[in-house]
């Protein structure tokens, strides 16, 4: 008697895991599985690669259009918008509110630079976020190294 209930519950849960395309957003030029990765920040103006690696600075794109990020202190979450032909913008940012003296500058700089990002490129195992001023942030796929 319980088997049909369990089977229908499992089917319902499986259906809930499918992520529909949002209206008005187009698929990225690269296959979505190619960008849906966890990316480690390896280059950002004002910080050495060692500082970024030690902070475990990452962006998690596995649940697009939601993106989670960590820059050594707070959990950050925001939405990717207008992902079309390499164009991208970010919105609806939220963060936890812990104070970490050693990584606050990194986190604040990252969020500030994120506001100026207008495009992205995926080259093999690298993700590059570009701003109009030519300042870019470079990431490497976590599963690469």
Protein traits:
single chain, 145 residues, alpha+beta, eight-stranded antiparallel beta sheet, 4 helices, 8 strands, disordered N terminus
Structure explained in plain terms:
- By secondary structure, the chain is of the alpha+beta class.
- Helix content is 25%, strand content 34%.
- The protein has 4 helices and 8 strands; from the N terminus they run ααβαββββαβββ.
- The chain has helices at 2-16, 32-35, 49-54, 104-114, and strands at 38-43, 58-60, 66-70, 75-84, 87-95, 119-123, 126-130, 136-141.
- The protein has an 8-stranded antiparallel sheet.
- The longest helix is centred in the N-terminal third of the chain and has 15 residues, at 2-16.
- The chain is globular and about 40 Å long.
- The relative contact order is 0.17.
- The model is unreliable at 1-31 (pLDDT under 50).
């Amino acid at each position: 008697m319980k088997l049909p209930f369990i089977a229908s519950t499992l089917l319902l849960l499986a259906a809930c895991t499918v992520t529909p395309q949002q209206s008005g957003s187009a698929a990225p030029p690269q296959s979505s599985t190619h960008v849906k990765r966890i990316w480690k920040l390896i280059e950002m103006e004002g910080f050495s690669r060692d500082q970024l690696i030690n902070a475990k600075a990452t962006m998690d794109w596995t649940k697009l259009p939601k993106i989670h990020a960590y820059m050594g202190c707070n959990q950050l979450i925001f939405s990717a918008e207008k992902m079309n032909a390499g164009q991208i913008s970010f919105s609806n940012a939220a963060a936890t509110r812990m104070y970490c003296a050693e990584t606050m500058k990194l986190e604040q700089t990252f969020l500030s630079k994120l506001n100026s990002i207008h495009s992205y490129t995926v080259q093999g195992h690298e993700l590059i976020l570009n701003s109009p001023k030519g300042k870019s942030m470079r990431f490497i796929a976590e599963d690469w190294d």
